[in-house]
Design brief:
single chain; mainly alpha; 3 helices
Length: about 100
């Protein structure tokens, strides 16, 4: 059970590092324009990123890789996420090539 607690603690620390400056920081006047590189974070992209974090966590809770079940976790938990992101990366490359 300590493996789950350690994973959750890491998630809480990362969220704290990312969210605390936004919550406690004061707003600065922006005198400069942010460059628009043509990439916009769509709702589908946000769902995909969230699913990329949630799927391995759920598979880890089910398979318990900390009990020497790492190969199954890598194939079922991490493998599909890496495969789907790899396929989308290739398709986005072909899509940008056409433009």
């Amino acid at each position: 059970m300590s493996g789950v607690i350690e994973i959750l603690l890491i998630v809480v620390i990362v969220l704290g590092i990312l969210l605390l400056p936004r919550l406690t920081g004061r707003k600065r006047d922006r005198d400069f324009q942010l460059a628009d590189h043509g990439f916009r974070m769509t709702g589908w992209m946000r769902i995909a990123i969230m699913a990329s974090f949630v799927w391995p966590v759920l598979v880890a809770l089910f398979l318990k890789p900390w009990n020497n079940n790492w190969p199954a976790f890598l194939y079922v938990g991490v493998g599909p996420v890496a495969l789907i992101w790899g396929i989308s990366w290739v398709f986005l490359g072909f899509r940008k090539e056409r433009k």
